[in-house]
Structures are given as structure tokens and as C-alpha cells.
Amino acid sequence: MSMAQTDRVSPPRRRTRRAMLVSPALVLAVVLSGCGMTSDDEGGSGNGGGLTKITIGLSEEPRSLASWNAYSNDGHPVLRNIEEALLNRDPQTNELVGELATEWKQQADPKTWRFTLRQGVTFHDGSPFNAEAAAYGLNWVLSKDNAFPMRTFLGPELTATVVDEYTLDVTTEAPDPILPTRLYFVTIPSMKALKEKPNEWETHPVGTGPYKFAAWNRGRDIQLTANDQWWGRKDTAAAHGSNDKVKDVTYLFRPETEVRASMVKTGEAQFVRWLTESQCGEAPKCEKGVGVETVILRLDTPNPALKDPRVREAIALSFDKSQIINNIMGGGELAAQIVGPSALGFNKSLQPYPYDQAKAKQLIAEAKADGVPVDAPLTVAAREGFILRADESIQLVAQALTDIGLTNVKSEMRETAKFEQAWTAGYQAITPDRGLIGLQQHGNELMDYSSSIEGYYACKGATSAYCDPELEKLTAAANQLAGGERDTALQNIAKYVYDRYITVPVGQPNFYFGLATGIDWKPRLDGFLLVKEMKVS
Amino acid sequence: MLRYALRRTFHSAIVMIGVLIVVFLVVDQIGDPARLMLPADAPIQVYLDLRAKLGLDEPFLERFWHTMSGWFVGDFGDSLWQGVPALGLALQRVPATLTLTIVSLAFAIPVALLLGTRSAIKPGSLTDRLLTTVSLAGVSVADFWLGLMLILVFSVQFGLLPTSGFGGLEYLILPALTLAFRPIGRIAQIARSALVEEMQKPYIQTLRAKGLTEKQIVRKHALKNSAIPIITVSGDEIATFLNGAVVIETIFAWPGIGTLFIGAIERRDLPLIEACVFVVALMVIAVNLIVDLTYAYLDPRAKIRG
Questions:
Q1: Is residue A458 within 8 Å of A475, Cβ to Cβ?
Q2: What is the DSSP secondary structure assignment for residue B199, as one 8-state letter?
Q3: Which domain holds residue A394?
Q4: Are residues A191 and A311 in the same domain?
Q5: CB < 8 Å to A253, chain B
Q6: CATH of domain B94-251
Q7: What is the CATH number of the domain that holds A426?
């Protein structure tokens, strides 16, 4: 008897067998899916017809929603919509503008800055925003004992004190001419929440901003709702935008760029950050812009080959920066400095190092003739999963260096911790035999060149592979200045390091954003995603 | 059987403590979480202050003792990066991991058995060759590619299912289907080879002589007798899934333990790594115990010694 015959004479068993195959998956799916799970919010009301809720797709979930994380790429897209700082930046001009402060001025004692605070502001928990709350919040977020990473952007240690209800003094241990620039990062949490619910500090932010925290389903989403009592609703000009239409904001976290691109195409999200150029082109609407990030090569100057300025210059000339920025990384601006035009100290007169392989070969030949060990082992390395297509870029550079006569060059992608360990060793710990040529993306979030100089060119800089007493003097002098004088001094330093080929700036890559057609928004230089600045229709 | 289960659990607990100790020793040596938590150009003093706050500047033995003593009261400490209890973070991911694992395998195992048995009934036939090719494709296809293709077709092109996320049944279909491909291929291959071998045994000839159809022989006799390797492979697949289907979780933003675990390793977040190891190990121990007990049920000759 054939199988078919058996099937024909046994219909009940056939149904049972099929049920056996199908039902386990179905039943378990239904049962398990029903166990306390609710659907992900699919975002707004579509691409047209007025959005009252928007869904924003990001590549990573915030590690924390505490105010200290308001500077970071994972934290600020959420936190800067909930909490506010004393100052912000104008989205068009990038100038510092008041947010929770209306005026600020350095006092006769240069160690003190006085801030006049905005009146009539309340935190989401109903407590008033005043000098006491501001002082408490600033002192908490920047406390040495708390040691939050936000202190990276702190200069001299500071203390905030109350002058009167709406006047705040911030005193630093040494004069800090760019204190307002630093405080633009520091959002102010509710004093009441900090005191009454300290356990919720990392998870339930309470601020004064246009959106209130609603929920954080870890691994899934974060939800905000509009703060109808926000001061900016009545004073849109001072607030630089007030998006009254969008009542609910949901953040979803999708590490894979292709998935984020799909979300904005299907309408699951109305705004997604960081796509590739081609993915952005397929989105309903695409915006792009450079930020504060610059891709650079840093050279280990203690190395006997890289110590020679001719070898460093040859490396700077050896490869096509446009090939990396425009063809590999998807577009952007070539750079001559490790900071872009957003930073004070940006020197417009400097041009990106040209691509001149012939001259590079000649420089290496001269160095070799003078006994410089051009066969010293050199490693062009980058961190995994950080810079777009970094593996291709370092291969290109390594090949270019080999082509000009550096005969012992290899390229290597390194796991994050291994790369960071080498990158942050500091000049004193770099041994002559290391020969690291690191490809890295440097962000000057402060928008002041001094922080980049301190990091990359100072003898004790955390990411420095260079030491020059003359440069130390120039930096110390510039750090005491403010305004135009500071700008000039920093530009002079930019020229100084440019002529010495300490780092090789490659360019500022574009960042691409996919938007629904109903959203009108332009990228900010600082990368903040402020929903209040999105115009919806 | 109860004594056996208790003894296995006791042995597993000892192994788990050993694993936690090894993880502590290894992670302690392979990177500095404080450096990773800060921007690359953070000043040295900021870095040193953060190390002190996290207790990373304490002597090794002190840190080790402090960490280990917490394990015995279920306290793995706070995640260095997220500042909340690490065990809670790991446990939050268990429902999603279990859901994806169970649904994928509840789909994969019956399909794989169907393919395997159909192949085994007539080895070398066209059907066998076709199904073997299908199962080989299941084992070979890159789940990263498959996941993205399914999103492009079912979400972007036809708009039938959400691209990603976690929630109702519609969110489960694509990741479960993607995840099921490999076990379908692997279990089908094992089922086929086990059944082909079983079908050559003398008692099968006797059954044929008695007039039973091939289908009856397979269903009533051969399948049960060849179930041990199938159960073993299925248990292995379950254990793999419980460790986290990192690629699938990443593509579909499925909040399972895999992405949490990998993220913790990348960031050298020791408390969270230890908590993930603990939770995954508990689940794997439970699965292994179930598999062992299933052996005894299916094959009475496999005596369990208590």
C-alpha cells in the first residue's frame, strides 16, 4: 500500500498530524506573546495629515537617563528634550543663547560667572526652578565625588552658589573664560527628585524641558509626552522653537542601519538617525550635515620613523583623503584641522594636506638616506564598529604608505577595548617600537579648539602621542584668553601643529537623517535632536 | 529520578561558580571599563576619579572577594554602565529570549522531522535529494542576510509585518522564521541519518514482513527508536538559542539576552557579564536536565543512576 493510499483511508489522522505540526508554534506564540507584552508603538499618524506623535529611530539605547549622560550620542537625543541647560546654541548661527539663563557675565573676579535665571519655570514634578535648584543640580552633576563622565567637559573645579532667587554665581578654582560653553552641556535635574527619589536618578529624568519622561521599556523603547506647562510654549522666540503639535515621542533602538532605513520607508518611524548616503536617498526625505566629528590619523611620534618630520609629512601627502571621505565614507568635507568650522580656533586659511604621492616618495627617500629607519614596523589601526567602513580606509592608507617606501606597514582592525587601551595610553607610555597610526573620529563637542589641543597635542593629553614644550606654552597662554583674542591664539596653534604634521586630518563625514515627508528639520552642528525644532505638517 | 536531578543540579552549581570565577579573572585582565565609559580624550584625572568611584582601584583580592560574596546572596552589583542592578537587567531579557527560542523551535522541530522522515523513507530518491538540498540550505544560509531579505520582502515590499521590534505575534514571525532555518536544516539532517540507519535494522524487516507500511513503521517504531540523537541536537539548539541569538536580536531589535550579553562584554561591564552568565547558565542547566530525563523516558534502557 502506498503512502497516498494510507492518507486516503485515514483522514482523521492526517488532520491530527497537521495539527501536531502547526499548533505548537501557533499556540506557544499566542500564549507567550500574550504574557504581558504590548505592541511597539508604531509612531505617528502617517506621512501626511498632521503628526501628533512621532517615532524616532536611533542606533543605540541610552546607557542611562541621568543628567550626566546628556552630552553623549546615546543620551542627548532623549535627554535634551526632557531637561534643559543654562545655555543652548542657536540652531542656525550656532551661537550660545540662553535657555534656563537669560544673561551671563564674567565678574570682576575672573573666577566667577554670574547667571540671571529665567523666571516662571517649573520642573515636571511641579517644583520651582530657581537659583537653589540650579546650584544643587550643577553641583551634583559636576561633583568630583560623583565622578560622572560629564566631568570630561569641565575645566577647573567649580561651585555654584545662590545669590538670590534668580541669580546664580558659578565660581571656578582658576579663571575659566569658556565656562558658559562648558555649561551648555550640563542639563539641570530636579532638586526635589534628586532628594526624594535618588534611586530613580539613572532611570526617571525630571527636567524643565518641552517633553516629560513617560516610560522606559529597556531594550524596547522610551516614551515622552508633551509638557504643556513648558515656558517655551509662551515664548517661542526665546525657546528657539516650540513644537505644539507633537504630543508624544517614542524612541526605538535599531542597531542595523538597513532596518532603520526600512522603518522610515514603511512609516514605522518618522525620523531616523545615521543612515548611509544611499539609504538616505531612498527615504521619503533626506537631510545631511557635518557635525563636530573629524576623522583623523594620529601618528606615534616617539617611534624612530614617525619622529622624523619628513616621514610625517610624507604620510600626510601619501593618500587621497577625498577617496576616503567621499567614496568610502559616503561624503563630507575634507579637513585641515582636527576640528571643524563650528569650533572657536578654526583656521580658515589652512588647506587640507594635498595628495602628492611623488613628493611623499621623495621625502621618504631623503629620510632613508639620512638613516631614518623607514623599515620600522608601523600599524595602521582602527576601532571595530565605530567609523563607517574603517577597514577599507586603513587598508587604503597602509597600501599608500607601502607605495611611498615605508616597507613594513600593516593594517589591523582592533576590538574596542584593545584599541582604546592603545589610543589612550598617553605620550609618556608610548614606546618607540609601537608605531601606531590610528584612524579615529574625534569630536569637539565643546566647540572650542582648546579641548582638542589638550587632548591630542599636550604632553599629558589623554590621547596625545606628541610632546612639545613650545606648544605647551602657546596652549597655556591661549587658555587664559577669551573672545577674539582666544580665537586668534588658537588659530595660531592650529597653524603650528599643521606645519608639524602631528596628526593628519582626513575630513568631516556627513551624517544622514531619514525623515517622513511631513517633518521639516535641519541638522544642528552639535548633533542634538530637539523635537521642538522639528516643524511638522 | 529526583535524586538524580538534585545531584545534577548540585554539580551544575559547582560548575557555574567555577565559570563565574574564570569570567571574573579574564574580564579583569582584558580591558578597563572606566576608559571605555569616557570620551576618548577625557582628562586623566576624570578617568582616575571614575576608576575610584567604580572601585576599580581597589586591590584585586578585595574586589574578587567583594564580588564573589555577592554571588551567594544573588547580588551581582550594579551594571557599571547603566547604574542599576545587573541581575535585574539580565532577568528582564529572559521572557523575550524564551519566547523566541520556544516559538522558533516549536516551528522548526516538526518541520525538520517532516523533512527528515520524508527523506529517510526512500533514501536516494528525488524527494530525498530535494529535501536534503533544502536542509543543507537551512544550515548554510547566513541568518544576517536572510533576516534582511525577509524584512525587505514582508515589511518594505508588501507591508505585511513590522520590520522589527517586540510586542505581539506580528513582531515574532520574522525573527522566529529566520532563527528557525538553521535548526530545521540541522535537525532534518540528523533525523534523516538516524532514521536511515534505524530502517536497516532486522526488526524493521520483520515489521515489513508483517505487512506494515513504511509510514507506519517510521511513525510507530523507527522514529521513537532514533529519537535520541534528534533530542540531543534539539537540546543543543535550545542551549544555543538561550545564549542569545545575537545576530537576529540585532537585526530585529529583539530584546533578548544575547545583545545585552555581547554589549556587556564589549564594554567590560563585569557585573552585567556575570549576571548574564548566571542567567544563561541556569537556563542551559534546566534544558540539559530536561534532555537527560527525556532520554530515560524514550529509552528505558538508559538507566538514570540517582
A1: yes
A2: T
A3: 293-508
A4: no
A5: 253
A6: 1.10.3720.10
A7: 3.10.105.10
Tens of pLDDT, residues A112-149: 999 999 999 999 999 999 999 999 999 999 999 999 99
Question: Tell me, what's the ipTM?
Answer: 0.87
Residue A434 falls within a domain, yes or no? yes
Crossing angle of the two packed helices B60-71 and B2-29, in degrees rounded to 10: 150
Residues 518-537 of A with CB under 8 A from B: none
8 A C-beta contact, residue B143 and residue B70: no
- Is the same domain home to A265 and A300? no
Q: Angle A186-A427-A388 (CA atoms, 0-180°, nearest 5)?
A: 60
Long-range CB contacts (within 8 A, 24+) of A431-436:
A431/A302, A432/A302, A432/A303, A432/A304, A433/A303, A433/A376, A433/A377, A434/A300, A434/A302, A434/A303, A435/A300, A435/A303, A435/A305, A435/A306, A435/A376, A435/A377, A435/A378, A435/A379, A436/A298, A436/A300, A436/A378, A436/A379, A436/A381, A436/A465
CATH number reported for the structural domain that contains residue A270 in this entry: 3.40.190.10
Q: How far apart are CA B88 and CA A284, in angstroms?
A: 40
> Residue B74 contacts by C-beta under 8 Å, 6 or more apart in sequence?
B87
Distance CA(B79)–CA(B94), nearest Å, equals 17
Per the confidence metrics, is the pTM higher than 0.90?
no
At A253-305, the pLDDT tens digits run 999 999 999 999 999 999 999 999 999 999 999 999 988 999 999 999 999 99
Q: Tell me the C-alpha distance between B238 and B259, whole Å.
A: 17
Backbone Cα Rg of chain A: 27
* A158 within domain boundaries: yes
Residue A259 is nearest to which of B110, B163, B255, comparing CB atoms? B163
Contacts of residue A292, defined as CB under 8 A and 6 or more positions apart, other chains included, come to: A339, A340, A342, A343, A443, A444, A445, A447, A525, A526, A527
Which residues of chain B make contact with A28, given a CB cutoff of 8 A?
102-103, 106
Write out the residue limits of the CATH 1.10.3720.10 domain(s) in chain B: 94-251
Chain A hits for B275, Cβ within 8 Å: none
CB-CB under 8 Å, B114 with A417: no
> Which of A186, A420, A473 minimizes the C-alpha distance to B39?
A420
Residue segments in chain A with a per-residue pLDDT below the cut of 50 = 1-43, 45-48
Q: Please tell me if residue A4 touches chain B, with a CB cutoff of 8 Å.
A: no
